[in-house]
């Protein structure tokens, strides 16, 4: 009976606590990895002395159109 009870507790803890926590950690890791990739890509384009418009277009190609950055809006 004790073995079945501990197995039940193990399954419940895994399903209720550990799997959702692992999913959330993986999502955060993907966000950090994507952000680091974007920073590295931008720095490599700066090191290659690419034009600001080219860098803008290249960086915006990775982003959702709703959050695209526009250099012209920043000039004002």
Describe the structure.
- The chain has helices at residues 2-47, 52-60, 71-74.
- It is built from three helices and no strands.
- The chain is rod-shaped.
- The chain is 78% helix and 0% strand.
- By secondary structure, it is mainly alpha-helical.
- It starts with a helix and ends with a helix.
Shape: rod-shaped
Give the tally of β-strands: 0
Low-confidence stretches: none
The rounded Rg comes to 22 Å
Helix content: over 70%
Order of helices and strands: HHH
Category from helices, strands and their pairing:
mainly alpha
DSSP helix count? 3
Provide mean pLDDT, rounded: 93
How far is the N terminus from the C terminus? 73 Å
Percentage of residues in DSSP E strands? under 5%
Could you give a short account of the major beta sheet? none
Provide a quick synopsis of the model.
By secondary structure, the protein is an all-alpha fold. The protein has helices at about 1-45, 50-60, 70-75.
List keywords for this structure.
76 residues, 78% helix
How are the secondary structure elements laid out?
Elements: H1 2-47, H2 52-60, H3 71-74
